[in-house]
User: Which sequence fits this backbone?
């Protein structure tokens, strides 16, 4: 590709392949055969020199396909947070191989690289999820994983709580911040998070979940799993935003309605007791209305901070998303395991072996999980969230002309070659030009 020669596959069989130059009179060729009981190939014949005319170099590069482009640039996409646009792919292919590719080929090549790094396409990622979850529980004993499917083996809900987080929560403050953020993949959905503060005011991840949207059913399902794993401590405080579904799910999960039923029964049996107890104050004699300690956690900022950390991860398919969350938690537990917070981070989150080393039961390996039944919208998917009511978005500032309202890429303002201030050249560091006298125009310079 670098020398701008092109080839074609002359013969291709499972055991050998022959490649020749596209010019009929050229002697360049490569022959390779597959090794027995191996995935490697061995080159058996190689004619290095091209004998085709030097001017025979077609403009179109038939070997610069989207798959080849993806293989060339996939190393630059290992970090999910890196911004790598199709225009960058075109520039790298031109600079490294001297090949001009179109924008569509660059975009498809980048998507091929993403599919290779993200454990396949979104559909293949759902099929890998049961096996991945089995290996997650196998390498991390004590972790709680719940996968719920609907009719037709379609994905519905997912809940994950690592054993290290379950153990470390007993050394944290009993204040849990919950939130949900939208996923940006092909099948959308939302990511549920439950976090708290450790003794060093750092974010301590507790549980993660994936659902279809923020509704009563999904929030109720997630909070029931949180309660079953972390218990119902009487001093537990849940901090959230003002989403109506969260309030409904908390009341259902933590049995606040039971108090109202019992209180109504008591007030109906004994006349006048209702007014007396309300005058005393419900917070003085009921556990459900007791003002528990919230410490200094008054907002869901820790949940929003975690969402900001996962902003690029939320674009990944489901299995790659879970894997990146595991890597993040594994990194935090390893870096924070010091002598001061050893008990909190004593648990270890172990890595997952390569997919070629997975050992799953036959029931799991034969189970094909299908994506959720959602309608995919045509066109590019939205990645920027819609601003809330009354929210003021920051105005971008151009680094070229220093004006607001646009950036450097879209700047169309003319820039002066020699900028001066309002007072002309006064006060500037530019050299001033003195007027030349007519008699000095033809003077001979002194040596």
Assistant:
């Amino acid at each position: 590709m670098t020398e701008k020669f092109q080839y074609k596959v002359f013969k291709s069989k499972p055991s050998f392949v022959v490649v020749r130059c596209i010019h009929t009179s050229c002697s360049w060729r490569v022959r390779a055969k597959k090794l027995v009981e191996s995935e490697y190939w061995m080159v058996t014949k190689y004619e290095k020199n091209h004998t085709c005319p030097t001017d025979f170099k077609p403009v179109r590069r038939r070997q610069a396909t989207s798959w080849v482009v993806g293989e060339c640039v996939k190393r630059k996409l290992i970090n999910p947070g890196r911004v790598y646009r199709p225009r960058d792919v075109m520039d790298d292919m031109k600079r490294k191989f001297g090949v001009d590719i179109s924008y569509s080929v660059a975009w498809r090549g980048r998507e091929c690289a993403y599919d290779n790094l993200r454990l396949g396409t979104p559909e293949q990622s759902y099929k890998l999820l049961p096996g991945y979850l089995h290996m997650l529980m196998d390498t991390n004993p004590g972790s709680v994983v719940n996968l719920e499917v609907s009719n037709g083996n379609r994905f519905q809900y997912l809940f994950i709580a690592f054993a290290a987080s379950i153990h470390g929560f007993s050394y944290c403050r009993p204040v849990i911040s919950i939130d949900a953020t939208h996923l940006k993949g092909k099948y959308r959905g939302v990511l549920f998070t439950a976090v708290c503060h450790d003794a060093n005011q750092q974010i301590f991840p507790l549980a993660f979940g994936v659902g279809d949207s923020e509704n009563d059913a999904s929030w109720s399902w997630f909070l029931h799993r949180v309660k079953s794993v972390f218990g119902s401590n009487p001093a537990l405080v849940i901090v959230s935003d003002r989403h109506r579904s969260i309030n409904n799910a908390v009341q259902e999960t933590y049995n606040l309605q039971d108090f109202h039923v019992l209180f109504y029964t008591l007030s109906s049996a004994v006349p006048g007791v209702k007014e007396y107890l309300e005058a005393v104050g419900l917070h003085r004699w009921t556990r459900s209305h007791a003002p528990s300690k919230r410490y200094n956690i008054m907002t869901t900022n820790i949940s929003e901070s975690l969402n900001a950390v996962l902003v690029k991860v939320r674009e990944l398919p489901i299995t790659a998303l879970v894997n990146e969350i595991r890597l993040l938690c594994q990194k935090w537990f390893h870096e924070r395991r010091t002598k001061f917070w050893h008990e909190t981070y004593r648990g270890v989150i172990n890595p997952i072996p390569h997919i070629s080393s997975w050992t799953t039961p036959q029931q799991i390996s034969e189970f094909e999980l299908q994506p959720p039944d959602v309608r995919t919208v045509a066109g590019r998917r939205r990645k920027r969230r819609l601003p809330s009511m009354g929210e003021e978005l920051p105005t971008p500032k151009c680094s070229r002309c220093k004006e607001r309202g646009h950036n450097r890429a879209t700047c169309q303002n003319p820039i002066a070659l020699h900028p001066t201030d309002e007072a002309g050249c006064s006060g500037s560091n530019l050299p001033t030009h003195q007027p030349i006298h007519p008699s000095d125009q033809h003077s001979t310079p002194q040596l």
Summary: Strands lie at 7-12, 16-21, 29-34, 41-47, 144-150, 154-161, 175-182, 190-197, 203-211, 237-239. The CA atoms of residues 166 and 230 lie 7 Å apart.
